[in-house]
Design a protein that fits this description.
Layout (H helix, E strand, L loop, with lengths): L1 H16 L24 H7 L4 E6 L7 H7 L7 E4 L5 H4 L9 H12 L3 E8 L15 H18 L4 E8 L12 H6 L2 H13 L5 E6 L7 H15 L6 E4 L2 E3 L6 H13 L3 E10 L7 H20 L3 E6 L9 H4 L17 H11 L1
Parallel strand pairs: 1-2, 1-9, 2-3, 3-4, 4-5, 5-6, 6-8, 7-8, 8-9
Helix pairs in contact: 2-13, 6-8, 10-11, 11-13
Bound molecules: (3S,4R)-3-hydroxy-2-oxopiperidin-4-yl beta-D-xylopyranoside.
Keywords: Carbohydrate metabolism, Glycosidase, Hydrolase, Polysaccharide degradation, Secreted, Signal, Xylan degradation
Catalytic activity: Endohydrolysis of (1->4)-beta-D-xylosidic linkages in xylans
Family: Belongs to the glycosyl hydrolase 10 (cellulase F) family.
């Protein structure tokens, strides 16, 4: 899987980290040369602007890189963390009924120590499943009981850690129809409500239960399908508290500030809390030009600005902050440079655009 690919990339990463890191002065044609106090950290600024947190995903593959971990667990930059992989089914229940929290705890433990909040990701998703589960020979009751047992054990393992759980991830196609996952094929669309019921049964009442997806950051067929799901749940008293907008964007194609505001308003009208759960803005081609860097900075700024301004958006999480560990080049070959920190741990224009906007 990709984690192995990332591990293979580690050799090159250690070479990269030896390079000196530049300060703000190296960046920003707009003159982002201000005193250090101007940039106290993204989480500090986000909280001052009224958000609950600014966070990051953290991956296990670079936890031996102290330059990486010192930023990842720096509470001034990131008041919240999400394990990029460690809470997924293939790592947490690699054999039926055999649970393993090692990868998740490698991130959760330092987060506890640093007093960072944790978003937990994800109970039910159609990829990164262990091989033992990924076939359709199950009967419906068997797979329902597997689902319940998985959610029960994982919810209990992290019961005091999770401010929110992504209960179901990516259940819809772009046209708003249900994605034909293993759970859909065996259980039917009720797998979604069952997952939320189980999540409510086994998590503390204060844990927010989210539906999470990508390409729902504008009002479109997919986000309207999510809104319908929410309405249906509310009519039938099935628990759901929030909608996660993954926000995986591409330079030149990212949604506008207003489009993001509109979709968050749509969910606000349904009393749904929202969060930007996996924000990144990738370059569609590489190498990038300075103009593309500025466009990226504007897209990052507009996303965070929309979250700040929307009544129901509680925080923003970037899907890792450092380019060498971004998922983008592995998933979209030829694309990349999607994060806020470059290969040499220099903060990009986007970092300063977000900070300046939050300071307004
Ligand atoms: C990605 C991870 O970052 C990668 O390391 C892994 O190989 C694949 O998954 N949407 C999600 C995340 O909800 O779980 C995905 O994370 C990125 C897309």
């Amino acid at each position: 899987m990709k984690v192995t690919a990332t591990l293979a990339a580690l050799a090159s990463i250690s070479a990269v980290t030896a390079a000196p890191s530049g300060g703000p002065g190296r960046h920003g044609p707009g003159g982002h040369h201000g005193p250090k106090g101007k940039y106290p950290g993204l989480d500090v600024l986000a909280k001052r602007a009224g958000l609950q947190y600014f966070g990051t995903a953290i991956d296990n593959v670079v936890l031996n890189n102290t330059q990486y971990t010192s930023i990842a667990h720096n509470k001034s930059e990131f008041g919240q963390v999400t394990p990029s992989n460690g809470m997924k089914w293939m790592f947490t229940e690699p054999e039926r009924g055999v649970f393993n929290w090692t990868a998740a705890l490698e991130i959760v433990k330092p987060a506890r120590k640093a007093r960072q909040l944790t978003r937990c990701h994800a109970f039910v998703w159609h990829t990164q499943l262990p091989a033992w589960i990924d076939h359709t020979n199950w009967t419906k009751p068997e797979l329902v009981s597997i689902l319940e047992n998985h959610i029960k054990n994982e919810a209990r393992a992290f019961k005091d850690d999770c401010i929110a759980w992504d209960v179901v991830n990516e259940a819809f196609n772009e046209d708003g129809t249900y994605r034909e996952t293993i759970f859909y094929k065996v259980i039917g669309k009720e797998y979604i409500e069952l997952a939320f019921k189980f999540a409510r049964k086994y998590t503390p009442r204060k844990t927010m239960l989210y539906y999470n997806d990508y390409n729902i950051e504008t009002v479109n067929n997919k986000s309207l399908a999510v809104a319908e799901l929410v309405k249906d749940f509310q009519r039938r008293r099935i628990p759901i508290d929030g909608v996660g907008l993954q926000a995986h964007y591409t330079v030149g194609r990212s949604p506008s500030y207003q489009q993001q505001m509109d979709v968050m308003k749509m969910f606000n009208d349904l009393k749904m809390e929202v969060a930007m759960t996996e924000l990144d803005v990738r370059q569609p081609t590489l190498p990038e030009t300075q103009e593309m860097r500025i466009q990226q900075a504007e897209a990052y700024r507009d996303a965070v600005k929309a979250c700040r301004d929307a009544k129901n958006c509680i925080g923003v999480t970037v899907w890792d902050f450092w380019d060498p560990v971004s998922w983008v080049p592995y998933t979209f070959p030829g694309q990349g440079n999607a994060c806020l920190w470059d290969d040499n741990f220099n903060k990009k224009e986007a970092y300063y655009y977000i900070s300046d906007m939050l300071r307004e």
